[in-house]
Amino acid sequence: MSQSGGARDDARGELMSTTTSAAVDSAFNALAQTVLVHNARTLEDLVREMLRPMLKVWLDDNLPGMVERLVRAEIERVSRGRGG
């Protein structure tokens, strides 16, 4: 890489030079291609697999309270309608 190329990248406020960025892009593309060829899994499959445990924890922590609050609100709404 030439000194002037790095200076131009710095002047634009970029954190990486275009050469470094291209090398990183190439490496990640090669990794993605290797993963997809050898595992025959899509990116969607990988994301689903990673998110599933996080979603389970969130639901376990939040869903019971949300359902209870909404059921209570609906019971109040129905009971007010019946009495009035």
Jot down its keywords.
single chain; 84 residues; 2 domains; elongated
What does this structure look like?
With 84 residues, this protein is mostly helical. It has two domains: 1-40; 42-84. The chain is 86% helix and 0% strand. It is built from three helices and no strands. The longest helix has 41 residues, at 43-83. The relative contact order is 0.05.
Structural class: mainly alpha
Number of helices: 3
Number of separate structural domains: 2
Arithmetic mean of pLDDT: 84
| Order of secondary-structure elements | HHH
Distance between the termini: 80 Å
Shape: elongated
Largest β-sheet summary? none
What does this entry show, briefly?
By secondary structure, this protein is mostly helical.
